Model the fold of this input.
Amino acid sequence: MTAVDALVGAIGLVAIGAGLMVVTTRHVVRAGLWLVVSLGAVAGLYLVLAAELVAWVQVLIYVGAVVVLLLFAVMLTRAPVGASDDLDRTRWPAVLVGLGSGGSLAVLLVRAFRDVYVDPARVETAGPELMGQVLFSRWVLPFEVLSVLLLAALVGAIVMSRRTPEGES
Done:
């Protein structure tokens, strides 16, 4: 076991622990802050794996934009900030669904990438040009759909937070 393996394992444990805190905490704002820790740990994993561009995108897009959007949506919709009793439900169905979907995803990924070989020489020579070519040719539509979805969520939060004038319902 190398030092990189140990570092990946440690950062992975931080990401998993923070992810568990996101879904188990009863405070919405604290869940958002734990999400920052979890997404930051994932960015740390990308850095350890020498994917600096992906790490910066993770920090800028997810930690910077998505979490801020989530916290603004919570504040604009006047959602309860403290502990909420309506969030207390039986957890076993959620645990079973989470373990089932996580296990299914793991099996799918192992089977899908079992025979994939990455040539280290090609990876070392691939730079930002190849990354940009792939990103702006194959992944433009998902990024645009995501931006429209985030815009719709922001507009929806603003509409929901508006007060209705007296006399209107």
